[in-house]
Amino acid sequence: MHQIAMIGTGSMGSMMTLLFAENGVKMSIYDPSESNRKKAMDKAKQDGLESKVTAYSDYESLCNSLSSPKVFFFSVPHGSVGDAIVDSLWPYLEKGDIIIDGSNEHWENTQRRQGKLVVRGVGYVGMGVSGGYQSARGGASFSPGGEDWAVEAVMPFLRTVAAKDVEGNPCVQKMGAGGAGHYVKMIHNGIEQGMMSALCEVWGIMNSGLGLRYEEIADIFEKWNTKGELRENFLVGIGVDILKQKDPENKKHVLSEIQDKVVQDVDESEGTGVWTSEEGMRLHIPIPTITSGHQMRLASAYSTKRKRVSKAMGGRLVTPQSIECEDREGMIEQLRQATYITFLASFIQGLTLLARADDENRWGLDFSKIIAIWRGGCIIRSEHISELFLKVYKNASKEILSDPLANETVAAEFKNAFPALKKIVSRSIEADAYIPTLAATLEWLKYSTTEEGLPTEFEEAELDFFGWHMFDLKGHDSGKAVTGRYHFGWRSAKGIPEPSKIVRL
Ligand SMILES: NC(=O)C1=CN([C@@H]2O[C@H](COP(=O)(O)OP(=O)(O)OC[C@H]3O[C@@H](n4cnc5c(N)ncnc54)[C@H](OP(=O)(O)O)[C@@H]3O)[C@@H](O)[C@H]2O)C=CC1
Ligand SMILES: O=C(CO)[C@H](O)[C@H](O)COP(=O)(O)O
């Protein structure tokens, strides 16, 4: 691939422009904002790549600058922006042209555009790009999906610019047809959000509960990141830098100056977390670690609302207390284990959802390949977890593919760390610490691993009482998620006789 048109030269697009140019590609760039185009050109100059990069201010000249078949790369906001760009390119598209959409696009938008472009013989590759702008510059993790011919055509180039894992393998693999690539990236981001919330909760417990200073927490995270289950975990690693960084002007920690608001879901600049939660509900897969973290983040965005409610309560309902602890080292080890299994829960939930979507869409995803591309470059990279899943998915049965929590090695990891998570959750509740993902993971583990004896038998009775929804009988469970065959006449509707014993219908 000798020439690419980059559309959207913001944080990611400008960095990938440099990465691609550095790898010998002649880059034509377009962005509606003149100042963004200028910034991108300035960066190219700075890196000695100006001869490889040319900016265009309209689509006609952008397209005229390319030889056939033309290759476009989108790095733009999701939704209507991508549609508008496809419409603008429409007059210039020819059979054999390829669009690589490297934005975080909704997988159904990707499939809709693929359907529209297929009649023109244009390939539309929906591709997740992970790793943030630093990886976009140095090599990111890519998950391309779409028509075989189009994905195959771009794979050799992607292999050269992708991040490399610890064994030197490029972090890019063909995912599947349609919107598979963007779906995989959406799941990646869902997992990422569960993990980020867990880590911020644990940071909060250490800081407010144990009274540890930022530098002390940085040292702990550094140790965690060096060996054991959290080794070479990207989020823990950057946590160390975040905890050490001081504002050169006032010498305060930068972190201490940051407002507690995450707004990118609420302002709709990003959508992947919302879509993951929606997909979990649509496909009936419990993903509480992911959704609970996401929900705290949603609430965090509304700072005015939080103030208003707090005022209505005559002051804040809770203030995290200090945690009295005789064995501080022991508690820090429990926190490490709790972090690890909450991360692992986020992975398992995301992968279980992905398996269900794969089943629905018949993408034929290869889960070993997905784990492989998440081993380098990306935000959720975590060496122990990657190694664990590479083993799990090697020759995995159909049952384990759809239910990785039932793998014995995975189950042993959870069983081992469960007591630590339980201790941390109960101490944190006592101390009013914020622990949505830790608590949700604990409950998820409890109810997902109980063979029989959930309190939902009471719920099933209530449903049958008021709605004639029927139930299964203990000892006669078919094991299938289908309506039970039994009913009891709990209370008759006016004048209508009801069975006075359990009846099979
Ligand atoms: N930041 C990150 O860590 C990652 C982001 N992504 C995804 O990559 C994409 C780009 O993200 P990021 O670089 O952070 O975002 P930015 O906002 O920095 O960049 C988006 C660029 O697209 C431009 N743009 C807006 N509307 C149009 C249009 N109609 N036609 C062409 N260009 C347009 C924007 O211009 P203007 O500024 O004038 O609006 C901006 O330059 C998003 O989909 C994001 O979800 C993926 C992985 C990581
Ligand atoms: O895609 C990304 C990383 O993988 C981007 O950083 C994105 O901004 C994360 O957004 P969100 O937390 O809303 O998923």
Automatic annotation (TrEMBL):
<dbReference type="InterPro" id="IPR006113">
    <property type="entry name" value="6PGDH_Gnd/GntZ"/>
</dbReference>
<comment type="similarity">
    <text>Belongs to the 6-phosphogluconate dehydrogenase family.</text>
</comment>
<keyword id="KW-0560">Oxidoreductase</keyword>
<comment type="pathway">
    <text>Carbohydrate degradation; pentose phosphate pathway; D-ribulose 5-phosphate from D-glucose 6-phosphate (oxidative stage): step 3/3.</text>
</comment>
<dbReference type="InterPro" id="IPR006114">
    <property type="entry name" value="6PGDH_C"/>
</dbReference>
<dbReference type="GO" id="GO:0019521">
    <property type="term" value="P:D-gluconate metabolic process"/>
</dbReference>
<comment type="subunit">
    <text>Homodimer.</text>
</comment>
<dbReference type="InterPro" id="IPR036291">
    <property type="entry name" value="NAD(P)-bd_dom_sf"/>
</dbReference>
<keyword id="KW-0311">Gluconate utilization</keyword>
<comment type="function">
    <text>Catalyzes the oxidative decarboxylation of 6-phosphogluconate to ribulose 5-phosphate and CO(2), with concomitant reduction of NADP to NADPH.</text>
</comment>
<dbReference type="InterPro" id="IPR013328">
    <property type="entry name" value="6PGD_dom2"/>
</dbReference>
<dbReference type="InterPro" id="IPR008927">
    <property type="entry name" value="6-PGluconate_DH-like_C_sf"/>
</dbReference>
<dbReference type="Pfam" id="PF03446">
    <property type="entry name" value="NAD_binding_2"/>
</dbReference>
<dbReference type="InterPro" id="IPR006183">
    <property type="entry name" value="Pgluconate_DH"/>
</dbReference>
<dbReference type="Pfam" id="PF00393">
    <property type="entry name" value="6PGD"/>
</dbReference>
<feature type="active site" description="Proton acceptor">
    <location>
        <position position="185"/>
    </location>
</feature>
<keyword id="KW-0570">Pentose shunt</keyword>
<feature type="domain" description="6-phosphogluconate dehydrogenase C-terminal">
    <location>
        <begin position="181"/>
        <end position="491"/>
    </location>
</feature>
<protein>
    <recommendedName>
        <fullName>6-phosphogluconate dehydrogenase, decarboxylating</fullName>
        <ecNumber>1.1.1.44</ecNumber>
    </recommendedName>
</protein>
<keyword id="KW-0521">NADP</keyword>
<dbReference type="GO" id="GO:0050661">
    <property type="term" value="F:NADP binding"/>
</dbReference>
<dbReference type="GO" id="GO:0004616">
    <property type="term" value="F:phosphogluconate dehydrogenase (decarboxylating) activity"/>
</dbReference>
<feature type="active site" description="Proton donor">
    <location>
        <position position="192"/>
    </location>
</feature>
<dbReference type="InterPro" id="IPR006115">
    <property type="entry name" value="6PGDH_NADP-bd"/>
</dbReference>
<dbReference type="GO" id="GO:0006098">
    <property type="term" value="P:pentose-phosphate shunt"/>
</dbReference>
